[in-house]
Amino acid sequence: MLNIQTVTKSYGTFKALRGVSLQAQGGEVFGLLGPNGAGKTTLLRILATLLRPDGGAVTLAGHDIQADPEAVRRSVGVVNGGMGLPARLTGREVLRSFAVLYGLSRAQADARIAELDDRLELGRTLDTRAGDYSTGMKQKVVIARAVLHDPPVLVLDEAASGLDIFARRTLLDFVQATRAPGRLTVYSTHVMSEVEEVCDRVAILHEGALVTVGRQADILAATGERSLERAFFALVRPEVSRAR
Ligand SMILES: Nc1ncnc2c1ncn2[C@@H]1O[C@H](COP(=O)(O)OP(=O)(O)OP(=O)(O)O)[C@@H](O)[C@H]1O
Questions:
Q1: Which atom of ligand 1 is nearest to the CA of 42?
Q2: pLDDT digits over 19-52, tens only?
Q3: Residue in 152, 145, 158 with CA at minimum distance from that of residue 104
Q4: Tally of structural domains, the chain
Q5: Tell me, what CATH number does 140's domain have?
């Protein structure tokens, strides 16, 4: 479903990605974990065709990001921190206008909006103007907009940041419920507890390179640690970890 091969990316002389390779399958919630500046957003922007890699190759849902970026865009929904909503439109209006872009009829759009209302508890968000939204309301509509066309791959980049416990719970439950054969969610964050809760396999990225990738239980067993946070330190700073 997602195949990333030795991807490199530099900003000027700074190497943000130093040859990252990983694979993720349908049916998985795949965690991308790393501290600020690890290169997570850079990697996600590359696989969503928002940024070109300097080297390497990526296929998503069977499509090559360089050869067929349009097909990749149809196959992926992206949620990141920087996505705004038009302040004057209600959530329903935002979703209906995006449905037109995705080629859905009004009936199809309204059926899909009703389904997402149920799954994301959009409630009064649908008929409130985006300018009056709380952070949680905004994020729910942004997520609904990202999955409106029912893409097989969903990319969430720090999607829970700024959310209160209720909105975060809705998001994590949505991610859990979205797990299905033929569907992949890539969940990127620096918050280890979110990954521990929702992800099957995890890749840990540090300074542009992959430190490890595997099932959480296997990473804990290999490092002899009891949490991903401790495993992370054991992997990237073994001398600090041993001293604790
Ligand atoms: N357009 C850019 N120009 C120069 N440097 C950049 C640019 N975008 C990102 N970087 C640098 O590349 C590195 C990786 O950034 P990236 O945003 O991919 O990391 P991240 O793991 O997503 O971290 P965060 O959680 O802070 O967003 C950082 O050191 C960042 O400063």
A1: 18
A2: 999 999 999 999 999 888 899 999 999 999 999 9
A3: 145
A4: 1
A5: 3.40.50.300
